[in-house]
Every structure is written in structure tokens, then in C-alpha cells.
Amino acid sequence: MSLDVTLQTDPGAISTDPVEEARRQIEICNACRYCEGFCSVFPAITREKVFADGDITQLANLCHNCRGCYYACQYTAPHEFALNLPRALASARTDSWERFAWPGGLARTFQARGEALAAALVIGTALMFAAIAGLPGGGAGFYAWLSHGAMVAIFLPAFFLPLVAIAIGLRRYWQEVGGTRITWADLRDAGLAAGRMKNLSGGQGQGCNFEKEERFSDARRHVHQAVMYGFLLCFASTSAGTLLHYLFDMQAPYGFWSLPKLLGVPGGLLLVVGCAGMLMLRKKADPELGTPGRSSGERGFIWLLGFVGLSGLLLYAVRGTGLTGPLLALHLGGVLAFFLLTPYSKMAHGFYRFTALVRDAQDRRARGNV
Asked: Where are the transmembrane segments (predicted)?
């Protein structure tokens, strides 16, 4: 196949600007259309003729980096077009998260030095918890080490302030991509796509090419599902404990057959398994198809999330022993670090990607493609 469309720009003029380079490659893809049946990115590309900066941002966040388009493309290097769409969209995507992050600059810092910053924050906050653990707890279980009031005073702001930062970033994103009023139908379509991880199967149900290059695999979709549902179960466990405490005056510690434990233990296991799987797949994947200069931030986020799940499980296993205090400090340090870093780590990609799916649902509905 050859391009039978005259491109508006020089197809060989590679740009160092992530948005401009993504635009150059997308224009070539739009002329070729060989990958039109792939993930949601390519049908979205074909719906446009001219790509504004907001269009590039939307397409970049709609991309799940499954890499199938790269291995199917006839215009990759050594061709003069030198297409590497997964890398170009990954660069534009990360650039958008860093631009939209509030306060500015923190996301770029974490992405460049994620592992060191995550480890330092976990250790620092763990030492803080260890220092205040000697204060009277006034309760049973973990509250004997740290009172319920102290936990609320520390974690309530640490939970809501990052949500405010994420909301500001998403608002900036929504304005740039030209989003309109959100309907329940938009949320339903986006939720179904996210829940099934549809785009991690290349949109055709064959799997993606993340770690096996030209061979298809569902491994990345499965580990993403493990992490996502593990996180949701852990969040549901915490929510259930909050409701039991405040509405039913049932205070921790809770037994294994209680709702918080029935949700939290499987959630922790899924987090650990999913994060371990992600790290293994990353070792097999071609780094040249990912975001340049951001591998430390990506690994740091995975290690931090896996540590939170693992330390929670170990804490439950050693409760009532002398290891409870040190492990509690480490676990709470990990949780606090995770909350504080959420707007600036790759955890933010879940929020932006879901918002991109909502915007895509709007666009498809407006054009009659639902």
C-alpha cells in the first residue's frame, strides 16, 4: 500500500516537540488508514481532517500503548517517515499530564525520578508515623498504636487535596479537548470500555503486542484488570469500614468474615499480583515504544502501589505480634505517599484515560457512530 493523499506537511520532518511530532505521525496514519480497524484511536483519527492541539491531546490519552499499530505499520524506520506512533502518543500523553498537573512542575519531577521520590516519601512518612505511635492510641487493634482521630486528621486532607488537584487537571484537559456536557450515556459507554479494558485487546479481541512484539497477548490486559479491580476492592473495603464505624458504631478491628476484610484481602492480593505482572511485562517490552525519559516514574508508581497492597496483607498476617507497630508505620507511610503522589504519578493516567473515553463516546454519538 502507498499513500495516495498529499500530506500538508513534510512527512519526514521529525519534530522534537511531542505534540507536533504526534501530529506529523497522525496525519500520515490518517492518509494511510491501514490500522483503521484497530483500537479506538484510529476510528477517532479518521473522523478528523485537521488536528488541533486539543485533538492530539485527546488521541494521545485515548491510546493504551498496546503497540499493535507499530508492528503492523509499513512506515516505521528505516522508512523515511520513521513512524513510531506508540512512542509519539506516549510522549504527547505524558506531556499533557505534566502540563495539566496542579501545582505545576511536580508531575515532571516525579516522572523523571519516581522511584527515588516514592521511596523517600514512604520512608519519611513511615518515620513520622513511628514517631507519633508512642502517643496514647485509646483503642484496640491498630488504634492502640495510632488513634482513630489522628488517622482521620492525617488522611482526610491527604485524600481530598489530591482529588482537588486531579479535578483541576481534568478541568484543564476537558477545556483543551473541547468536551461538552456529560450525559449518563457517555459515562456508561466509557465505563464499559474501561471495565473490559477493550482497547488493551487492540480493539479486535486478539490481545495486544506490548511484550511479545508481533505475537498477540492478553497478559497486559489481565494485569491491568487485576490492578484496577484490586484497587477498587481496597477502596470499597476502606469505605465499608468507614460506614461500619460511623453509621453502625462497629469499630475496628474487624474479623476475617467482615465486609472490610472480605473486600480488602482479595483486593490486596490482586494489587500485588497485578503490579508484579506489570513489572515483569515491562522487562519484556521494547523501551523504544514507550515514553522517553519517564521509565523511573512508571516503575516508581507500580512499586508504590504493589507495596501498599503487600504491606497491608502482611500487616493483617502479623496482627497482635511485635511486628505490628513497624509494619503499621510502613503501611501507613505507603498509603500516605500513594495519596499525595496520585496527581503526579502514573495513577493520574486512569483519570485522564477514562475522561478521554467519555470524550470519545461524546464524539461518536455526535457523529452517529455509536
From this structure: 116-136, 142-168, 226-248, 263-281, 301-318, 324-344
